[in-house]
Design a protein that fits this description.
The chain has 422 residues and is mainly alpha-helical. The chain contains 18 helices and no strands. The model is unreliable at 194-201 and 403-422 (pLDDT under 50).
């Protein structure tokens, strides 16, 4: 790392990421189970709720992206997200649940605004902020992000058991984790941009909007909208399907919590391995590898016949997600200016997810209700495969990184382009 301040920031931001993803897991990892089993919503209604979450996220992500690029290293965005996380227990218990019981549409709108801004768009904004600091201070983004996986896994380890006792316990655990976020982010030494880097104030809205005119941006979006969106639609109600394969719902909920935790602990370990894979393959091929694993998991879930095989499908997520995250940041760093990196990430990757999920969640919910989970998985996998094949032609090529040491020409070029030192 570049300095003592850099090491300090690594520790503080890793702790921030740990607490945020702990709160995210406690709040929404069992959201589909809470909506169906506790509140009694149908598949279509659950799809509507998820759609509202992603519409709200879709609206907020371009704003987050522009603000993140304009504010640079300032802490306003992560501090605002921390404040919203603190409200989780009160919101889910006294606002969201009662509203959904009284009116699904009203609850979906209000809940979507909170969940979308806080835990959906908010997670992408935090990842982008940590990536920006990591590039300046010389620590590896993936090694900070792995603490997010560990935080999510720590909450998931016992969230299923706690849900069986009382779902509200999980929501207030999220608020408790949120209380640590504000002191952590304000203790970090954010400093000023490095010499030669464009100052945040120089970024204008039209500079951010310029990415929408770039063909390489839309080539990137083919994979995001066509493969990763479909994968997330599949994954939304997966906890409910998983728990249905056990003798009792309570046993299924508890087992999902254990499996989710195990998967994320493996995912954290893969955060160390993924950079090596992406260095050798290049970011474009890394994206194709990760999305190919997604399609395998979706199709395999349609073939799974019991708890063991469906659990094996779930564990594939621990392999593809680290490769995807590392590849996305390296792809953006290679093909776009560093000063609009947050905009590309939050508009392309994050906004793209929200747009697709907002449109597809109700459709998937209707299919689950009418033809069942397994046939729906085959439908999703087939469409994802089509877009995956198209992505071979639309993604801009990103060469493998031949140099392995930090001082190699390849590393210097990537750092100059704004790449995280992974």
């Amino acid at each position: 790392m570049n300095s003592l301040a850099g090491r300090r920031n690594y520790v503080l931001l890793s702790a921030y990421v740990f607490c945020f993803f702990f709160a995210q897991a406690a709040s929404i990892s069992l959201l589909s189970i809470w909506l169906t089993q506790t509140l009694g919503l149908t598949g279509v209604e659950v799809g509507t709720v998820f759609s509202a979450n992603f519409v709200a996220a879709m609206i907020s992500q371009p704003i987050y992206g522009y603000l993140s690029d304009r504010m640079g290293f300032r802490r306003a965005v992560p501090a605002a997200i921390a404040f919203l996380v603190i409200l989780a227990g009160l919101f889910f218990t006294f606002v969201y649940g009662p509203l959904l019981k009284a009116s699904v549409m009203a609850g979906a709108i209000i809940g979507g605004a909170y969940i979308g801004v806080t835990f959906v768009a908010g997670s992408y904004a935090i990842e982008s902020y940590v990536d920006r600091i990591s590039r300046r201070d010389g620590f590896e983004y993936s090694r900070a992000r792995l603490w997010g996986s560990l935080g999510f896994a720590s909450a998931a380890l016992f969230s299923g058991r706690l849900y069986n006792l009382d779902p509200r316990i999980n929501f207030f655990m999220a608020s408790a984790a949120g209380l640590f976020l504000l002191p952590l982010i304000f203790a970090a030494k954010t400093g000023v941009p490095a010499s030669g880097e464009a100052t945040p104030a120089s970024l204008r809205p039209r500079d951010s909007l310029a990415v929408l005119r770039m063909p390489r941006f839309w080539g990137f979006m083919v994979l995001i909208l066509g493969v990763t969106d479909l994968y997330l639609v599949y994954d939304q109600q997966f906890p409910f399907y998983f728990s249905s394969l056990f003798p009792t719902r309570a046993m299924g909920n508890a087992m999902f919590g254990y499996l989710n935790s195990a998967q994320i602990f493996v995912e954290a370990g893969m955060m160390f391995v993924a950079p090596l894979i992406v260095r050798r393959s290049g970011a474009s091929r890394g994206l194709l590898i990760a999305s190919g694993i997604m399609i395998v998991r979706i199709a395999a879930s349609g073939l799974a016949i019991g708890p063991v095989t469906i659990s094996m499908c779930k564990m594939l997520h621990s392999i593809e997600l680290p490769i995807l995250l590392v590849s996305v940041f390296r792809y953006i760093a290679h093909h776009f200016e560093a000063r609009v990196a947050s905009t590309v990430y939050l508009v392309g990757f994050s906004f793209g997810h929200s747009l697709g999920l907002a449109l597809l969640s109700p459709v998937a919910g209707a299919l689950y209700d009418h033809i069942g989970f397994q046939p729906t998985y085959f439908v999703i996998a087939a469409f994802a495969l089509v877009f995956w094949l198209l992505s071979f032609f639309t993604l801009s090529p990103t060469p493998p990184e031949a140099g392995r040491a930090r001082g190699t020409t390849a590393e210097r070029m990537l750092r100059a382009a704004g790449a995280p030192e992974i």
